[in-house]
Amino acid sequence: MSTGESCPKCSAATISKRAAEPWCPACEWNLDHFEKERRPEFGWRWVDRRLFRTAYWLTERQYAELRDAPTPARAAMAARIATVAVSVVLLALVAALFLTGLWLLTYDFFSPVNLIGALLVLIAVVLRPRLGRLSRLTRDAEQLDRSKAPALFAVIDRVAAAAGTPVPDVVLLSAEFNASTTTVGLRRRRVLTLGAQLWSVLDPQERIALLGHELGHFVNGDIRRSLVTQAAESTLGAVAYLLRPDRRRTRVDGLTGMIVETVIDIVGGLLARFVGLLHLLLVWISRRDSQRAEYLADELSAKVAGSAAAIRLSDVLLLHDAIDTVVRREARAGNSAPAWRTAAEQARAGLVTDVPAFRQLSRRTEASLFASHPPTGLRAGLIAARPAQPAAVVLTEPEQARMDEELAAHYERVRRELAVANW
Ligand SMILES: [Zn+2]
Ligand SMILES: [Zn+2]
Asked: Where do runs of H (alpha helix) occur along 306-336?
């Protein structure tokens, strides 16, 4: 909505949404405003403002680079190389710790040095890279059976073939308003999770776009990269946790005890802070790389579903709040999935003229050094900036209806979940 004021730079009328600080839709004046209500990331306002400005600048620069590139380059870039290098060094250190521990444990058996060995082995075990487990994912999602959902699996197969990606080994349905891919376990099984709240409100071509995007993460080297970096991030997080001073509260009596404790606290605190900072750096660098991976997955999404559907999907994510509200309302009223899509389509139609403003605003609200995804508005922008692509896979309404019939029991489970949740 217009604010009734004009831009000091180009004198166009400024606009605002959701009580945000006004900005100029024409020249983007004040779009990089640091909102007072922003969720604290570091805790000190001046640091948070700095971090926001840096994130905003990096995000816009990455977008401009990709937009101006003739074809999106798939070659490794500095952020990926740095993340993988740091991760490999970290994992090598944990392995060295483990081997040294084993050596000390068996060296000159039955001597005090064995205890140190045991301690090192124990620390290495705590710090071991985590590969993820399927059982953890199935706590909030149900696994879909190929024989009970043949239409859905057939569509997944078609999208994978058109995109040139492998098919997922496991498909899960959760209640969430999103979708994701990951790999779990030693065998690195590929898992695709579809959030019913999002899946159910999409039109056929938007579903193809969503599948194209998610399966796109199975290529581009995302999985290999995430294997090492996830492991390193979890390891660094565990080190920082172990070193936190408040975790080692063993009262020792006397003056010597007090001095020893103080020294341990100071050294431990410094170490914890250093490791914490290293952890942050690794997270920030790897997030740059993962944002780039999202753009590349969008590229694949446009290739299989057509650019128009990929842009619409991105705008559905942009209007998440409004759609979430009406879907929950329908779920509470006892209405099932077809009613959710109707309600969502009404909400979307009502907001269609606001989409450009929401796209702009997302660049302010979603810019963060911690964000794994680029601002939603920039994702739509990048697809739109490239030559329009036709759909390689076309899904019809009757096919979509068959998919939804297969999932009816699952949707009902999700409906009950959404109806009782009180937000
Ligand atoms: Zn202006
Ligand atoms: Zn993604």
From this structure: 307-318, 320-332
pLDDT in tens, 173-189: 999 999 999 888 888 89
* Closest CA relative to residue 182, chosen from 173, 169, 195: 169
Q: In Å, how far are 133, 136, 137, 286 from 233, measured between CA atoms?
A: 17, 18, 19, 10
CA of 328 to the centre of ligand 2 (A): 24
**What separation in Å is there between the alpha carbon of 297 and the centre of ligand 2?**
6
Lowest mean pLDDT across 64-68, 260-264, 419-423: 419-423
Looking at all shown ligands, the one closest to residue 26's CA atom is: 1
> What separation in Å is there between the alpha carbon of 176 and the centre of ligand 2?
15
Which ligand has the nearest atom to the CA of 11? 1
Yes or no: say if 357 and 23 are a contact pair by the CB < 8 Å rule.
Answer: no
Distance 214 CA to ligand 2 centre (A): 6
What tokens does 289 get? 């790389």
Q: How far apart are CA 262 and CA 257, in angstroms?
A: 9
pLDDT, one tens digit per residue, over 261-316 is: 788 778 877 888 888 888 888 888 888 888 998 999 999 999 999 999 999 999 99
Ligand having the closest approach to the CA of 8: 1
In sign, the C-alpha dihedral spanning 405, 411, 415, 416 is positive
Give the per-residue pLDDT at 333: 95
- Centre of ligand 1 from the C-alpha of residue 26, in Å: 5
- In this predicted structure, what is the pLDDT of residue 397? 95
Which residues lie near ion ligand 2 (Cβ < 5 Å)? 294, 297
State if pTM tops 0.85: yes
Could you tell me the distance, in angstroms and rounded to a whole number, from the CA of residue 4 to the centre of ligand 1? 14
The torsion angle over the Cα atoms of residues 297, 298, 303 and 305, rounded to 10 degrees, is 120
